[in-house]
UniProtKB/TrEMBL annotation:
This is DEAD/DEAH box helicase. CDD domains: DEXDc_RapA (cd18011), SF2_C_SNF (cd18793). It comes from Oceanisphaera pacifica. One of its GO terms (molecular function) is helicase activity. Residues 48-221 form the Helicase ATP-binding domain. Keywords: ATP-binding, Coiled coil, Helicase, Hydrolase, Nucleotide-binding. Residues 404-583 form the Helicase C-terminal domain.
Amino acid sequence: MIQHSPHQQAWLAHWLTLEGKAEDTMAQTMAGAKVDMNPHQIEAAMFALASPLSSGVILADEVGLGKTIEASLVLAQKWAERRRKLLLIVPATLRKQWSQELEEKFSLPSVILEAKSYNEAKKTGHANPFDVELTKGQPAVCICSYEFAARKELDIARVPWDLVVLDEAHKLRNIYKNDGAKTAKKLESALSGCKKVLLSATPLQNSLLELYGLVSVIDPHFFGDLAAFKARYSKHNLDEMELVLLRTRLSKVCNRTLRRQVQEEGGISFTRRYSMTEDFRPTELEDQLYRQVSEYLQQDELLAIKSGARHLVTLVIRKILASSSYAIQGTLETMINRLEQKLPLIEALQDYENLDDYQDEEGYNDEDLIDPEALKAEIDQLKDFKSMAGSISQNAKAQALLRVLERAFERTTELGGARKAVIFTESVRTQTWLADMLANEGYRGQIVMLNGSNNDPESKAIYKEWLERHQGSSRISGSKTADMKAALVEKFRDDATLMISTEAGAEGINLQFCSLLINYDLPWNPQRVEQRIGRVHRYGQKHDVVVVNFINKGNRADERVFELLSQKFQLFEGVFGASDEVLGSIESGVDIERRIHDIYQRCRSDEQIEVEFNALQEELKERLDIKNSDTRRSLLENFDADVISRLNLRRSKTSRQLNAYQQRLLLLARMALSQQDDGRYQEGEDAFIWQGKAYNLNWQTAETQEGYFFRPHDGMGAMLIERARQQPLADAELTFSYQPEQGQWVDVKNLVGQQGQLKVVKVIVDASSHRREQLLLAAIDQDGNSIHPETIERMLQLPLCCEPSTVTPIDDQRLEDKLSEQLTAFKTLVEQDNELYYGEAVEKLERWAEDKRIALDIRIKQLDQEIKEARKASRHLSSLQEKMAAKKQLKQLERERDNVMLSYHQEKKKIEQEEDRLLEEIEERLATETRLKTLFTIRWQLAASAQEVTA
């Protein structure tokens, strides 16, 4: 029977949880992640975590390379370091998707804060709902939208955040402008002093000043002020030396990898997407219903909807109207009932599941109640609409779906894909109606529905069967929402042909086994369309993807929307679809939706529609035309060969580190669980069985074989580590047995038959900005010869010949001397790293001060030139009045120049004082405190077998 002592388990447990540089400890985080990370993603995370003094970075990888994974890895690393004040600010439409990704891939708990949950927390007595640990009683990543964060800026400012991640951060790039950018300025103020990670593939779109804006959000002391940056870098012909300097400076704060580089390194292979369209023309009755409801929504004095809710309500009703007559019929009925009962109109729109996103964007107040007396005529009108909708027996778009479905399947099969399609609709009622219609058209038993609640009997039955099938495995997370989605996706993958999904249902799911997507209802928001297509056209997709859209030939506005999304945003064709270059050029897809909705509201003829859409396209043209590509390449992109070489090295190094870490995690399980020879513990390759349950180091194997993912930060792995760390350890004598399978360890084999003493000490070097930990291992043999720490580690992995025995406390100065040497070496290493961090911070501040001083010099030169030109111009003036006015203007310029010159040295002194103050702050953050903790001291013997144990 193999035996190991609690001392050996404690050494392993502490080694597995050491804190320190990300370069050394990232394996802990990766060993617990349910995602196969590519080298560029790990490289990006390392870049973000490189310096504890950094105020933050921009991760600017191209679209499709997984910036979400990169940022999640950074968040998970901070979590592992027990830094739990983590804030994630994202577009409203991505909140749920982020929450699910963090939970499913990294086991990070999160809380989405929006108006409802915020107000509930306030009502229960919590002063600041953003302080999640106090509000919820346990830590979690706090997630909110940009708009909500800006409205609650004071609450956010009161939390000392360890890290703030801002997704789609190009929303902030116009912060340098005086007009607009209110949200950006509020967030900059609220998050001042916090470390930030900004995610954007387009940090530079139209102007270098946008890049300045993003960097200033991260660190106001990176560049000088706006005037200094403009004076130095915003020139038409930037000097080559200045360009090189700017590139060098940006390389410290911005990391960018391109798709072609990753593809060449071998990390990701991208497939194409192809577009199919199917025309349809509504029936006369459908067209009549559309026009009458549309005219109703266009009325100026619409009493049914208060002005504060006008945009939101009319937009959602239009979406439901375009979806199906069945959907609008149900909505009208609910609206009528709600209005008659004096209830909020917003409650009538729950058929549209993404309502929360719009309410958050609009700042909608759901307390707008209806005055039934003023609405009687309109209620009658709504009843007429409902009656008309009920009389429609066939929908032209549904017939178009039946026509195109088989052709689309044929095209998908030609491209090598499976006979599976996901159909997206924006209405829950349309979803139910489509499922019934398709069942009657030959697809009965082949349909899965996915939405925000899935309360239908079929979904409940699928969920129940899934729970029974996976009972006792780690596939069951305990979250009903997540597990319901997992059950339905698995059913679609294994048994069904069609999945009909709403937007809310599709958030955060992976459908790469399907390569046909049908937009039954087409959103107006290009970012939402790309998000949909991203469910199937993503990393891991092996086949080219087919995207089907319907074109309403009876509605010119609908046709123009499709043209806009297809031609201008390039959503449906090519290898990458809508690139971040294009999507990043718009501040928000909701802004585009709002503009399109305004056209629908204003236009009463096809001619008006043409004029308005032409104007919209012209308005978008400047933003959608990709500019400054040469500047972006020269400033942000590195040579392909350099990147590919670096990624190859990262892949090799990461593989070695991760394998070593996981094998030691498995060794801890063997030490802790194999003590009893009762068959409850059985070991396999990268896996073990304990009490009938299978645990595996590979998360994919664990899921496919109905086992448990064995990882360090939760479940069995976390329990074993914590138990081993907490055991009290008295001085003891351990007799190790050198087994034949360790024959390759020649250094250990040479110690067979010897004995000596061994001590393990944990050293903790604390600074306010970071912590470094190391295990010091000192051992000597009976002759006082020192043993190398690597040999000690190998010896501590050996089984024991017999039970440990207690001994009198060991106190040997020779061990202390060896430990002292190792401690000095470790502190020297820490000091060298701190010197590097300090040097980078000093260089950054020197560049900042230089920017400020150069700006002063440039301003004086500009004024001198203006004075010179003004004097020259005044000589050619003829009238006395003109000469007097010119003289007055000249005097003003001379006074301004004299004032700048007088304040020149004073300003330089202020810059130097600020530089000194910031350096003092850096020195304080690097000040270290060293603590030592003895884990255990033992006497040791090493025998070849139990018979060779010395007395």
